[in-house]
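=== Structural record ===
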Amino acid sequence: MLAESSRKFHYLKVGLGIVLSFIGVKMLLPLLAKLLAAACHVLGYQILADWAHGVDDIPIGIALGIVAAVLLASVGASLIWPQKHIEKHNRRLRSKTAERGHPVRLRRSARIISTEFSG
């Protein structure tokens, strides 16, 4: 059941990567804001230093909204562009390029994999 759902929602890995990156930035934001404020103060940009010092955190409601939107978008993309469509595209490419002996470019989820056809 879990393997079937991972095939059905093949863009979920991309969405989870984006969510984890966002959470990492959210955790580091107070430190980055302090560093930016100190750098702006040293360089003489007092207005930017005051603004950067006031930036502490992303509000919880906005953060949860971003996480939910990214996850819903990845699930929606998986439903709109199912894995079968990508496999069908790969089969069509193999049949066209097999006659010519050219390298085959296969799509797998969101990334492209180049392989040599060994017919």
Observations:
- The helical segments are 2-8, 12-43, 46-54, 60-80, 83-100.
- The first helix runs from residue 2 to 8.
